[in-house]
Each structure stands twice: as structure tokens, then as C-alpha cells.
Amino acid sequence: MSSDFHKEAFDEQTKLKLQLYRLYIREWLPVFMAQAEQGLDRINIFDLFCGPGSDGDGTWGSPLILLEAISIYLRKRQTAHTAPIYIYFNDSKKWKIDALKESVATTFGELPRISISYSCSEYDDAFPKAMTIAEQNNSANFLFVDQFGISALDEMRFKELTSLKRTDWLCFISSSTFSRFNNHPSIACKLAVEKTGKWSNIHRDVACRYRELLNSSDYYIVPFSIKKGSNVYGLIFGSGHPLGADKFLRGCWKVDPITGEANYNIDGDLKSPHGHLSFFKPTKLTVFKEKLCKKITEKEVVTNKDAYLFALHQGIPSAELKKILYELKKEKVVTQVPGVSYSTIFGKGKNKIVPLLVV
Ligand SMILES: C[S@@+](CC[C@H](N)C(=O)[O-])C[C@H]1O[C@@H](n2cnc3c(N)ncnc32)[C@H](O)[C@@H]1O
Question: CA separation (Å) from 124 to 58, 64, 133, 279?
Fold first, then answer.
């Protein structure tokens, strides 16, 4: 991708990336904008590679997508009294920041409770400043890292970012670079991705490396692969909260109802985890069903909460989990199908966590 990126029209893959961004931000904002009374001091949103606001055709980029979503929620009763929202737009190119300021002023004017800072810095300077702001206050943070290339979330920055409280992030990364220059020291020192198989899986390998660095089942890393020609790029989503992963997955499955994970047939040659011969080609969902069944049989998954969290880590949203549990009930693997949505399991009230098998 070139640095004249914004002078031309966005390609289909960029539009897809922005669609996933829009879907997620529209899920994320109301959660925190509705929490003003619950002691949240502020909401920080960082878009550190923000661009000028639109492409050569006038299609909106990430900053205007964000402000449009905020302005919608400011008009809704439940979210109108949000904690103050601080937005940080940064791009290394001055003309882009100047163009963005103008677009924001003409499109949105003044938005109540919203404060926007613009900076024209190198990301290397903008990132530590963002971290200092994000860790200071009793805040909810969201960071969008829409880089060209692979360096922005190297292993050190990744550890810093994932140690912050109440912080979700979305990072775009040119994963093919790891496939082509896998063992090159200048690449491996940023992120030591282990290539496990086909080039079309490389973005999953990147997600795997990030998971390895955390080594925690309480953190969620969710990849979405985007192919353009022979290159694979993608988004990686990160959150320490199951609701964050739940909401990102909902957008992914809207865009890709087969795997929730790619704009191409990423699982074209899936194999059953237990090597069963079948006339039917296993899909991500059938493979997940087999894995879940094994976990239930081995009593590693006992309740609806266990099943929900296991599904999230496998990239399966609760709507799909529920359908699979009904199938498992017919097959007598479970005896009941309790609610498996986030609000059923973690919401207020009694008896939210229920066993799947009552004997
Ligand atoms: C992929 S574009 C971001 C697009 C933007 N999210 C949008 O929706 O329009 C990457 C942006 O990062 C900027 N950029 C490139 N290198 C940078 C750096 N080292 N520091 C800050 N910004 C940089 C470019 O000027 C470009 O606008």
C-alpha cells in the first residue's frame, strides 16, 4: 500500500476493514457511554494512523466513522449522558490532519461532551503518549492501529498495551510479510511468528504469536484475515473482557457467515480433529462441535459459562453455540440448553450459571 493511499478510492479490502471497524465501534460505544453513573471518569479513543477522514472518492475513513457513531449515541436517551469522551487523532502527514480537522468541523460541528485532539507525530512518539493517557484515569480505552506494515504492535508494545485495564484494541497488520520473510531477523525481532502451514493461514499464525506472548486464558485475541491477490492482511482484535470479544465476533460473523474469520475460503481443507472419515467436508462449526463434545465428555466444559468462554476462544459466537448445543441435546450429549448469551451468564440475577448435563 502506498502513502498516496487516501488520494485514490479505497479498495474492497479496505472497505471491508472499515466495515468491521464500524460494526465493532457501534457495539463498543454504547457499553461505555451508558456507564457514566457507574464511576467511569472518561472514555479515551486513540486512532493513531487516522488519515484525512476520507478517500479520493469521499468514502469515509475511520475518524468520520467513529464520530458518526458517537453522534448517533449522543442522541439516544441511555447514552446521551456519557462520561466525557476524549478522542486522539494522529497521522504523520500534516496535510491529512489539516484535511481531517476541516472535515470534522464541516460534517459534525461541535459535539457535546466530546473533546478531540489532533497531532501530527510519528507513531513511535504517539504510542507512548497514548499509553500514558490510557493508564492515568479511571477510563475505558479503545485503540485503533491502522498501520501500513507490521511494526506498530511489536512484542514490547503489545505487552504494554495488553497490561492496561479496560482497554480494547484493533490492529491492522500485513501478515504476508511473516510468510515471506519469516526467519529474517529484522522481522522476527518485531514479532516472532511461527509459520505453521499454508500461506493462507498466516494471519492466524500472527494471532497465535500474540496469544503465546500473553499465555492467558483470560485474554481474548480474535483474528480476521483479509486476502488481496496473493497477500494476506488482517485485523487482530484484543480485549481482556469476554464482552469485547463477543461484540467483535458478532461483526465478523455478519461479514463472513461461514467461518466468521476471513474474506476467502480459509478452511477449504479442514480436517476433523479426530480424523473421522466423512462424506461431508468438515466446516469450522462442525469441527468446533466435535471439540466441544469432547470437552463436555471429559468434563472440562460443565456449565453454560464454560461453554460460552470456550466458544469465544474458538471464535464462535453465542448464537452459533446455542444451535450446536441443541444438536448435542438431540444426540444426548447434554440434557439441557441453558442461555448462553453474555447477559444471561454475567448479568444480574440468580441461577445464571447452569450445568449442561443434569443426571
Ligand atoms: C492505512 S492508513 C490509515 C487509514 C485510516 N484509518 C482511514 O480509515 O482512512 C495509514 C495512515 O498512517 C499514516 N502513517 C504512515 N506511517 C506513519 C507513522 N510512522 N506514524 C504515524 N502515521 C503514519 C499514513 O499517512 C496513513 O494516513
Answer: 29, 24, 15, 53
Which residue's CA lies nearest to atom 17 of ligand 1? Answer: 92
For residue 286, give the H/E element and its range: helix 284-297
Spacing of C-alpha 147 from chain mean position: 15
pLDDT at residue number 317: 95
Q: Band of the pLDDT at 340, cuts 50, 70, 90?
A: very high
> Is residue 125 within 8 Å of residue 90, measured between CB atoms?
no
In ligand 1, the atom with minimum distance to the C-alpha of 54 is 9
Choose between 307 and 3: higher pLDDT.
307
SS3 (DSSP) at 42: strand
Does ligand 1 have an atom closer than 6 angstroms to the CB of 92?
yes
Alpha-carbon distance of 274 to 277, in angstroms, equals 9
Sign of the Cα pseudo-torsion (20, 26, 27, 32, in order): positive
Q: Helix (H) and strand (E) counts for the chain? A: 13, 7
pLDDT of residue 1: 47
* Backbone torsion region of residue 293, taken as left when φ is above 0, otherwise alpha when ψ lies between -120 and 50, otherwise beta: alpha
Q: Tell how far the Cα of 95 is from the centroid of ligand 1, in angstroms.
A: 12
Whole-number Å distance between alpha carbons of 251 and 24: 6
Round to whole Å and give the CA distance between 240 and 165.
Answer: 8
> What pLDDT band is residue 277 in, cutting at 50, 70 and 90?
low
Residue 148 CA, ligand 1 centroid: distance in Å? 7
Is residue 93 in contact with ligand 1, taking CB distance under 6 Å?
A: yes
Nearest to 17, CA basis, from 118, 140, 209, 148: 148
